[in-house]
Specification:
Elements: H1 4-9, E1 17-20, E2 26-37, E3 40-47, E4 60-67, E5 70-75, H2 79-96
Antiparallel strand pairs: 1-2, 2-3, 3-4, 4-5
Length: 97
């Protein structure tokens, strides 16, 4: 199985991204978008199955960050950053037509 970050950056990847929660359980996500913003890369992921506490049409924003020398996905919790990433995503969609 591919590394989730490799999958995210693979333009040809059509498979769901599998991440593990704090209990070690596999959770599948559909990749919605890769959004570069202010020198960082963010990914918008939508759970394949509705998660507790999330609506059917909601998605998560994760940042690709280096942690201990390895690229990792880190959940973004700051509303301002989440809003900015979604704004950038919507702008990219508008540009693509």
């Amino acid at each position: 199985m591919n590394n989730p970050i490799d999958q995210i950056f693979d333009e040809n990847n059509q498979d769901n991204i599998v991440l593990y929660n704090e209990n070690g359980e596999a959770v599948e996500f559909e990749q919605i978008a890769l959004v570069p913003r202010l020198g960082k890369v963010y990914v918008i992921l939508k759970p394949a199955v509705v998660m507790e506490g999330m609506g059917e049409d909601e998605a998560l924003v994760l940042a690709v960050e280096e942690v201990d020398g390895e690229e990792c996905l880190v959940l973004v919790e700051e509303d301002e950053v989440i809003d900015a990433v979604f704004s950038e995503y919507y702008e990219l969609l508008r540009e693509e037509g």
